[in-house]
Each structure stands twice: as structure tokens, then as C-alpha cells.
## 1
Amino acid sequence: MARLKSTADLEKTRQKILSKRDPSRPCITVCAGTGCHALGANLVYEAFINEIAKNGLNKKVDIRRTGCHGFCERGPITVIFPDEICYLGIKAEDVPEIISTTLIEKRLVDRLLYEDKDGVKIAHEGDIPFYKHQQRLIFGSNQHIDPESIEDYIALGGYSALAKALSTMKPDDVLDTIKRANLRGRGGGGFPAGVKWETTRNAPGDIKYVIVNADEGDPGAFMDRSLLEGNPHSVIEGLIIGAYAVGSHQGYVYVRQEYPLAVSNLTLALNQARELGILGKNILDSGFDFDVIIHRGAGAFVSGESSALMNAIEGKVGEPRPKYIRTAVSGIWERPSNLNNVETWANVPLIIDKGADWFTSIGTEGSKGTKIFSLVGKVNNTGLVEVPMGISLREIIYDIGGGIPQGKKFKAVQTGGPSGGCLPESYLDIPVDFDELSKAGSMMGSGGMIVMDEDTCMVDVARYFIDFLADESCGKCVPCRAGLEQMLSILDRICNGEGKAEDIEVLEELSDVLQDSALCALGQTAPNPVMSTIQYFRDEYEAHIEQKRCPAGVCKALISYYIDPEKCQACKICLGECPVQAISGDKNIIHIIDQELCTKCNTCFEVCPTRFSAVVKISGEPVPPAPPYGTEVVRKKGKQ
Amino acid sequence: MNKVTLNIDGKDVKAEKGMTILEAAKTADIHIPTLCHHNKLAPYGACRICMVEISKNGKSKLVTSCVYEVEEGLVVNTATPKVIKIRKMLMELMLASAPVLKEVGQQHGVEKPRFVSEPTQCILCGLCVRYCAEVKGAHAITFVGRGTKRRVAFIDEVVSTGVCMDCRECYGVCPTGKIPRETDGACFEGITVEDVLNSINAK
């Protein structure tokens, strides 16, 4: 495409792209996000190409590899437009049938459709409960766009918000719109983006920077990754608009090295934008110059903290700065640097396009717009969900997430990543927004949401997160480095059945000091998983410490397995499956677990046929004595 | 207009703009404990022992006095119960890896430290690292590792390139005496002070 010389040129180009496209022509989209990719989406895509050619449909059917659709649990996903027919869990072998049945005979392939809990098949993506309860403003474009095609983005109206800002708005108008929209940072703190922009704009200095924080590192979180991979231009567009508002001519994207697809799609997108004159000198003939450098992270979680990130961009070790001056005033090379996360930037074009009033009509009093969550853990529909602020946790977990698998009981939901808190069932109806989650002792964070069922040990969960944070702490300040080390050692001890009566109190004492004295937000919020689990699940701590019992049956040092001699039918399955040969027995001879040899791997428990259920897991009580070796089984009545 | 007046522990103190609370307190003979601070070095804010409670506009906040700059009308309390509690816990945490600081711990009320860690005798204040870099320009000492695995170590190129000037000034800044005692070596096992000095002298 030729370089765009004006904002009018952009619209002309868009019309030209659209004129070449026939909206009634079938378009097969294959999700090529990371989840579907891992499940073989590429093979599916190739199969479609081959099958389309084989059937001579090249000129009658379009095919497109798109960004993540979000329903990762059921990938690879294919949606056929314009009818929006959605097939889930597709394999390459299914492709010939899809082509012959759906594209040629215009019938549905029933077996590949979503089936709801009453057995009703659902054909349209938007009708599937997982999607139906979402409001996909930011994420919804992913499924229509080939991330490698700037044409696809422009066809959907991409860069028109930038054109609008550059041609009809002054930087102050843009700033004012973002402030009125009350867009709050999606990266963790929820700080109003407009206020931050204004700080940078007003800070002294000619050289200013705008930065995308794509150092997403929370365990289980991948919303920023999917946005950058699936719709990189939306982030770039937001960044350029932000740069225009604050008076910056140089942008950075700080992206994890561990996100190779995001890096390559972003690199390509930046090059395309430069070719079109959307980046570089005199963007769309507005007189505004701006370009972007990609900085790849070297694998430190703490580099997501703003001052550590600035250090890393400068080429220094990613450690937070101790100074009491905001990076918006003194950031990269001590110049005003405005940092927002991927999702925040992606919101900007929408707000400019549709206006602040539209944006504030969505959400709650203090939190406007939508939020993307990475819904994972013990929930039926894992994936990425975008919901309006104010929706309840229950709606996300049950209506969208489909509830807890295998009929288990819900126990807790952890929001906000490793520094967030675990909320119990009684909090399921709170509206999800920045302030309500903080009030409950958790936080919005960047949008991680881990669902836990009755089989989860909350002490073990706290231990897991503290272990993660102790490893990811930069180690500079004493409270974070040494405090987390001691917290981890206490939690390890409790999980090992060596907890002391005073441990809970010491954990609370350490938590207080970390919150008050740590250098950066990582250390200050690190105690959240411990404090929230003590607050809501204190009984589990007490059971571990006082009764040496793990109520969820997770902590290996506190559980034992034995075979109930009344129930054992000597089927030899557990005996054969035990990886350490800890089970003795024979045909007709009751099986016995050698407690000394048992590694508590849970295999015997899992393989024992449910009709026998002879393997029993216990915690906090002594193992009943086993019958003498050689005792014959007691056959169930009617069997002999 | 380059002077501001603040109140530290009930005493009005005149200070230059740009000074830290710690520096202002020193001019008024008010003692604030420090461990990672050094007059010749840029503020580092790692040991957190110099925390004080400030209040302005009716809100109070805990800050590190070695970094926080003075402001007109700022009210500073250097030893509130909260501050004392934090310092005591920080000392107790540091004592786990540096039992040698027993007496400093006692000054902060730690009689029986409850925590144990690897007794590296190092509190990672970074004085050796920063002094070598900022004052001597040699950069012969560095941090290695991160989080609980963070250590200080002489850069091993020292042995071959002679970056270390053998000024031994790091010996003097080390608050635990670890550097002179072991010249660390925690990370580069087998390298001794003698090895380092011999290789430099041989050049």
C-alpha cells in the first residue's frame, strides 16, 4: 500500500479495502492464538487451505488466521462468517467434513458445535454462554483480524481514532477526553491514565517518552499477550494517540522475551505502520512525529514495576528506584515517561472514537469500561473473558466460566496475580471493580483470576505465591528479600506439619512490616496472599498447625493413603500402577500400602475403581493397622 | 527561597531545598539510624532502617529519610511506635544472615532473633559495590543473583584484568566486616584475597 498522505487518505484506503471484500462471501477464521496454536491450529489452517483448493473453492471462500478468540479451553476454534458458525476442538481430520457439509451443503456439523448443559447444540459463537455474558469491546476485534494484516485492522475502522485525534483535536482535547472517560490503568494499580498523562505533559523537559508495559508475568495470566499477538495495531494506535496528547515523539514497548509471537507480530505491525506513514515523520500530514522501539525484557517479573522497567530500558538491572519521584516526571534517563499497560493503551482508540460519555456509560461509579480477565484454574471454561466493570465474580465464574468441574465445591478465587488475595464464597456477589476488590483484601491487578475448588489447600496456595515472589523479588531491599524468605520458610514448615503455635502471628507481623516498609509495590503487596488466606481461611492454618491436618488433603507431609481391607477386591490395579512398588498383595490377597515406601503420589487413589473405592486418603489421624499379609479378600455379597 | 523549614521530632529545622530528611536531621543533631547510607554515595534506600513517619495535610506516611527530600512545613517523627516496630523487625531479619550485627540489633530491641538464614554475614547494603563504582570508578564488585539468592561478589575478571585497584577501601565501608574478613568469595569459590592480589601484583 502507498504511504498515506492525509487523514482523508486513510478513509479512502479503507473504502478501497472494503470494496474489494464481499461481506456475504464465506470467511473461515482459524484462531491462531497461543492456546489454539499449542493445540494444533496450524495443522487445521493448512488442512483448510488444502481442502479449499481441492474443492476448487479458492475464489469463493476466504480464509484467515486470527488472534485469540478467548475460549482457549475448547480450541482450536474456527468461526465461519458471515453466519458466525462456531466449531470447537477441531482437528485437521474434521476439515473435509466442514468444507463439504457447511460450505458446500450449507448444513451444520453437529458434533463440532458447542453443547450446553441440557444437551442443546449452539451454532453461533455469540450465543455460547461463555461469550454471551461478555462485553468484548477490546478483545472482540481479535477474531476478525489477521494480526499480520494492517488491511484487516484498517477495514474495521482501525487508525480512524488516530486520524480523528490528529485532524480534529488538540492534544489538550485528547487529554481531556481520556480524563473525562476516567480510564484507569489496567496493569495493576488502577491509577487514572489521564492524570498520569497530564503529569507527563506538564513535567518540564522537551523530550518525553510513552511506554507500553507488556511485561505481563503473573502466573496464569495471558490477556496482554493475546492482545499484542492478536491485535497489535490497536495498542500501537492507542500509544500514538497518547504520545500526541502528552507531547512525546518516542515510544517504547517493553515486552517479555518469552512472548515470541507477540514480538514478531508487533515488529511486523510497526513496520507496516511506518510504511503507511502512520508512524515516523509527519504522521498523516499532521506535522506530528512519532516512532516506537521494542525493548525485550530479560525475564524479570519485577521489571513490570515502573521504575524498574525504566532502569531496564536504560540497559541497567531491572530494579526499582528508591526515589520519591514519579516516573511520569522522571523516568527513562530522568525524562518524563508515561507508562501504561497493553490493555490500557488498547482502550484509548475506542474512547477517542466513541467519546468519553460512551465509555463512562459502561462500568461502575469508580471503574469505567470493561476489563479482560484470564479465567483459569478449577473452572469449566478457562480462557480470556472481557466483562463490564461491576459484573459479579459469580457471573464470571458460573455464567461465563460454567462453574466448577466434576461437581466439586467452589472454595476461593484469587484475583490480581501473585500479589492479589484469595476471596471466599461469601464474596462471590461483590461487583468486580478496582475499589471493591481492594476493599475485600484482594485487587484487580492486571486481571488474573484463578478459581480454586474444595481440593485446594489455602496454606499451600499462599506458600506457592510467596515462593514465586521470593524468587522474583529483586533482592534489593531488606523487607522484601529477607521478609519473603522468612515467610516462605514458615509456610514451608506449616505445610510440612512442623508449624508452631506462634506462626500465624509472626506471619501477620512480617506482612505488616512488608506492607509498610518495602521499596516497591512488589514487596508492599507481596503479603496479600498470606493475609487474605489467614483472614478467610484461618481454620485451615490452624488445622495444619494444631492438628497436623491438611483439610484439603494436599500437603504431602500431612496425608496418608491406606487400603480399606473391607473394600479391597484384590484387583491388582493399584499394585501395578504404584510407581515405587509400595503396594503388596496378590490375587485374592488384600493389598497393603507400605507407609515407609509410599511417596503419596495419589496414583492408587486415582486408579482404584470407583465401585470399590478401597484406597482412602486421610489427614490428621493415624493410619489404621493393616491386616496381616496374606489375608484373603472379603467378597462383596452377590459376587460369589 | 532555597530554604525550607520543617519540623523534626518537635524541633523546627531550616534546611536547603533538595536536602533529604536524613541530611536535614543531621544538621540539627537529630540521629536517624542508617545501614546502607554513605555520605559519598547516592542514596540507595535498601536497608529501610532510616524509615521515619511524615505527615502533611493531615495524612501520615512512612518514608525512607535517606531519599525523601525536605518540604516546607513537613512534620517528621523519627521514632514513632510504628517506626520502632519496623526497625526492630528489619534488624531481626538482617540478623538472620548477619548474626555479627548482634549489638546493633540490641540497640533496636532485638534480644533473641527468631529467624535463621544462611549466615553470609552480609546484609546486601551494597556499600562495597557502590563505593567501588561511584567513588573509585573501578566496578570491581557487583551483585549477582536476585531475590533471596542475591550476593555480592568480586567480578571474576578482576583476577585476569586487574580491575580491582587493591585500594581496600571497601574493607572500611562494610558494616559487618565481611569484605575484609573473606573478601567475599561467596560466589567464586576458591578465589581468595591472595589470589586477587597476587594476580594484580604480577602485572
Note: The first helix of chain A runs from residue 7 to 19.
## 2
Amino acid sequence: MNDFTALIARSLRTYLRQPAAIIPGFAIAVFFLFVYNAGLSSVASLPGFQGSYLAFILPVAIVSAAIGGATLAGEALIRDIASGYFTKLLLTPTKRLALIWGPIVAGGIILVAQVVVILVLALLMGLGSATGPGGLLVVLGFAFLWGMAFSGFAVFVALRTRNGAATQAATLVFFPLIFLSTTFVPKQYITSSWLKVAADINPTTYVFNAMRSVLIDGWRAEPLLVGLAVVLAFATVTGALALWQARKATQLS
Amino acid sequence: MTTASGVRSPDVERGILVEQLSRRFGDLKAVDAVDLQIPSGEIFGFLGPNGAGKSTLVKMLATILAPTSGRAVVAGFDVRRQQGKVRQAIGVALQEVGLDPLMTARELIVLQARLFGTSTGAARDTAERLLDTVGLADVEPKKRVGDYSGGMRRRLDLALALAHDPRVLFLDEPTTGLDPASRIDIWDEVRRLNSQQGMTIFLTTQYLEEADKLADRVAIIDHGQIVAIGTPAELKRGLGEEVVELSFETPDDAERAAAVLADATPQCRLGDGGLRCYFPVAAHEVPGLVRALDQASIPLRGLTIDRPTLDDVFLRATGQSMRGSEEHDAGEPPTDAVAR
């Protein structure tokens, strides 16, 4: 465990030393929260819409912040590869898993800090949680896991391409993941049938559902369990891809 | 398991044992069936021009590059099957310094020591001791490595390689690009580590002087193969006791002279400085050399008698001089460099 905690602490420290890498993603998330809430809140008056639009759109802001966290981890790997420090780490007896977990978990921690700020802002804007503070913790937990899942993908691309521009470009695939979903309106209001299909196969939909269920409906097992299963499956896949590349790095560098 | 010599001592098992080790990159044999036996406690110098395969060999021995074939045992552990144990036992300073520019020197050493299993408190003590050793103790503690000069980074990189008291230390061109004073500091440190801690040191270099001064034994690698191996004195003696250097007005004259002398004295070689000829006793041969050149009407500009250097060994082994390659080319691309 010594090396896991040491590497997470090191990644956190270096992230905080480049605020310019953290702030844009966070600013976009807050921007989404304000603008979508201001511009689309009349959706809440549609017949059959439950809860406040603020609670509905909040998960979108959180997932967009998670993309920022993922970019952080991918860029950190690229930086370490470019400086040669990644090779130095490969030369230590540290588990290869710890080498990629450092930036990924640290990215998740930064994300949680950002989500806390976003939640405070939302509470100030009048957010109510149907499940009280416990539900907000669930939201935080989902944000952390989803951020790690995205980070795993970014780290995979970084290790595979060893190229900063490619890693940045790869994070673009997250945008369809956010927007081809029940992003702005509940599913029953989506008119185009292709978007409904996309929303059904998009894992983000189930993360939105889980977060929204605790904020709007109260404690319901089904959306939480489905959401958790989807998040864990996605994180396992991206994490395994990243680990595979990290092991390969030892053979090719 | 057979070895090149058939014998290997426990000392070699604890040092470095390399058997028929090869690495290909596509069609290129970067390292080609290399055999080495380096007993523990030795300083071994590995000389070669850029792209000869030095860095490729170091990376294989350091477990970050898989061999295509062959076997290597470092500090008693197999580099393929016991990677974790090899890593724990070795310190490595690669040719390309690997430091995070956002961190401070202390942070880097403490993290390095912790990754090798040291407790945080002990890692802090290690950091202070090593910063003192490499002469960085007086640097502003908050200064990030990104603001360090090239020489400071290289010294810090050496400190990182020492953070866990390795038994075997790999230094890949540790003084390339350093000023003469820093170079001598590194030499002193290498000698101290070897004599006081008995550390086995595998050092690659392009500087003949470095190999000559530091290494107990030297190997010369060219085109991925070892072309000469022995103590510096043995290698030089193998050429003859004395060397006569003939210099000419033009390169053209030098080439004509080489052709003229080729029959009479086959131990002459054309280098950048002119023609170098090796003899047991130079004084016996000089009149004949001068006479032959005179008969061929090739004007001689100068003639000096000297002892052979490692450059002569190198010139004879590889057909090229190292002197010319010392000034430029600092980097050795691992993959495409051996295309010849």
C-alpha cells in the first residue's frame, strides 16, 4: 500500500501545481449548471416531469466535470512519458497497477473536491435532495467512480499513443457520452427514435438515472444498483485497458 | 546452461551474467548475441559509438526492455523471470534523465525511496544524505526541478538511482553533456560507491578517458557485438607498446601513405589525425617508415611517438575513431540507430 498512497499523493501534488489544467473543466461544469438551469428550467413544467430542473441537470454538470478529471490523468501520463519520469517509475519494483492508479485516483479526488463545490453552489441555488445528505454522498460516490472510469480510458490512450494531442482528441469521445443521453429532458420527452436508442445503450444514462433518483425520487434500489453495475463494468474495462498498456510499456520502451 | 567460457563464479552470479543476449528491432540487431561476465564489485566500462547498442543492452539488463533471445542474470536474479527482484537490487541512471519538472529534488528522492519500500522518515533522511552527496544540498528547497540546469538534473538523477542503496548500479553515459568539474565529481562518487560500498557499476560511455580512468575492465561494442574486452592496460598492450603517429598536409596524402605502407607495415591505421602505426619498439621502425614515404614522394608534416590509447583500441576494433563522435550526437535513438 505504501507505493499506492505515495503515488496518489504525488499525483495530487502535481495536479495542484498546475491549476491551469484543473480550472477549465471545472468552469465548464459550473457554466453548464447555470446556463442549462437558466435556459431550460421550463422543462420542469412539462406534464409528468417530476422534481426540480436543477436536480435534473446537476448530474450533467457533474459528469462534464468528470471529463476534466479524466483529461488531467491522461495529460499527467503524457507529461511523465515526455519528461522520462514514467521510465524512472517503470524501473522501480512498484506494481504496474500502482503506476496508473496514482494519476487516476488522484484525478478522482480532485473531481470529488470539484463536485463538492458544485453541490454547494447547487444548494445555494435551491437544490433539494429527496434523500437528504445521504443522497448527496451517493452523488459524490458516483462522480468519483465515473471520473475514474473516464480516467482509465484517458490513461489507456495516453500510454498507447504517447502523444498529447491524441490523448486530448480521445477525450472528445466523452462528449457523445454526455449528450447522446437523457441529458436535457427525461426519456419520455425525447422525440427522435435514434436518440432514444443511443440513450439506452449509453452507460452515462444509467449514471444520470442513479444520481437523479436519489435527488428527485428518494431511495430506490433499482436505479442505484443498475447505475453501480454500469459504472463498475465501465471502470473495469477502461482500467484493464490502461493496465494492459502499462505492462506493455515495460516491454517496448 | 552453457556459458561462453564454461565457468562462472558466484561473484559473477551476484554481479552481471549475460549469455547470448540479443535484441532485434525489426530487421536490426541492436544487440547481437552478447556474452558478459562481470563479477560483483567491479566497475565495468562499456564503450561504443552512438547506436552501437549500449543503451539497448542497459535497458534489457534493467528490465525495461524485453530481450529477443538469450539470458541475463543481474544481482542474482533473472531479468525476464524475476523482474521485481532485479529492480529492487539495481539503481539505474539512464542516458535520458527522467525527472518530473513540477516536483522538488527532495520530493523526488523521498518518493523514489518509498517506492523501494523505505519508510517515509527514513526516506527523508536518505534525501538529505544524497542531496549532500551529489552537491545539491544548498539549492533552495522549494525550487522545482524544471528550473534546474542540465548538470543539476543529471546529478539529481544519479541521486535517485542511489535512493535504495542498490547492489548494482547502471550508469548510461552519466557525464555526457557535463562540464569538466561536474564530470570529475561524478567520477569521484562512482569510485567512492565502488570502494566503500562494494557496489558493482556498469557504466556506458563515449568518453575513452572516462573508461580508462574509472573502469576495472572495458568492453567495446560495435554493431551490437562486443569487439574487444579486457582491462584498459591489456587492451592497449594488445596493440603493441608504442604508436607512431604520422600527420600529412592533406587527407589525400594520408590515404596515399596508407596505401604505400599497407604492404610493409600492416599495423598502420588511418584515423582523423593521420596515420597511426603500432610497434613493439617504435624507434626501430621509424627510419623504414620515413624512407618508404620519401621514396613515394609523400611529404610528411609531423611524426610523434606515443603510447597507445583506448582510442587506438577502439579504432582497431571498430575501424573508426571515437574522438570525432564525442563532440556531437548526445542522444542514442534506441531503435533506428544500428542501421548500417
Note: Chain B has two domains: 10-231, 240-307.
